[in-house]
Amino acid sequence: MRVRNRISTVLSAALLSIAVAAPAPAAAAAAPQTAVPQTAAPQAATGRLIALRTLGGRESTAGQANARGDLAGSTQNRAGTWQAAVWWQGRRNPIALRVPDASAWAISDNRYIAGEMNRGRGGMFRWHKGKVTYRWNPAGTRYYVASVNNRGQVVGTAFYDDGSSRAFLWQRGRLTLLAQPAGARSEGVAVNNHGQAIGVVTPKGTWNAKAVLWQHGRLRWLGTLGGARSEAVAINDRGQVAGDSQTKDSFMDHPFLWQHGRMTDLLRGTAATSGDATAINRHGVVAGRVQFATGHGNRAVLWRHHRMTVLPVPGQSIFAEVINDRGEAGGTAWNVNPAGGGDFGVPFRWSKGRVTVYPRPAVDREVRVIGISRYGTMSVLLVSRAKGSQLFRTA
User: Fold this and answer.
1) pLDDT digits (tens, 9 = 90+) for 284-337
2) Which of 281, 347, 265 is closest to 313 using CA atoms?
3) Exposed, middle or buried by CB within 10 Å (0-12, 13-18, 19+), for 245?
4) CA 368 – CA 330 distance, rounded (Å)
């Protein structure tokens, strides 16, 4: 489940999808066709990556970036100890948050920052304008932060030693466990600026999680597209929710947009056989990726008013991971030039119909685009066996 935006599932799925083509459901042949772009040989990279500095150590990592382009994460100092830090937009040097042995994972547009502490029994922290609030882990419990909004409300998940879990809302010094049926497990994913939180609830006796919305302490089931499971991924301030769901006729995931109490299949009327939603902007434009039965691999896409646009990004497997309110999207393209040898990913940005591909990193590096600012600059994480994890911004 995508409870937190940390390295993992997207990268693994990208590598897997390059090697294995997803089978198409039988009903796909009857679906109306949406053109699949044929990608020509890629042009020379036109973008530039600028390395962000550390606190004197070797590595750095990050969880989220906000619309300003501020980046929350952690970095090593000269002693090799990890410290929570923030890289303000336009600055290469990190600012230490002065929270001992901690990592920052979430940041809001008005610069609330939340994360986790590892020292001792651990816990959570929230930082704003230099003031830090702490919440320590109770015995047998560990808190994980997923999201923080402009009101300083923090949503995440409490995991317990007995294997159960519970979504929570932390605000004004008080932690509230969010509603769920008896015996169920839940996980918090995100919160918007009105305090609406999304996540998943897995009812007792099943492994099939369901997308949910919590508002004013009440639980609302978002439903599925006819299948057994669904997952909420992102929410905007209009209360629109993007996510994925199994359908009635297939075990493959379809992306959805939920609004006004209704879930809509974003693959309806297209030739795509499966896909995922990854982000949504304030206008309800959804970013993600899809697969086609014709063997084109993953393609980066945007959905606006339920209409799908395939982004003409070169490569064998492309993921749109982030989108800003201007509709600019960013993500990772894998195997841009297979003739060059090796499976590798490069960041890309799509803006007003133009694609910018950034330089190829070392062959052994993994790539994740963390965020895209309102100015179109992207925050990028590269992971290498030789150099560890490093943060960059696009220029």
Assistant:
1) 999 999 999 876 679 999 999 999 999 999 888 899 999 999 999 999 998 766
2) 347
3) buried
4) 10
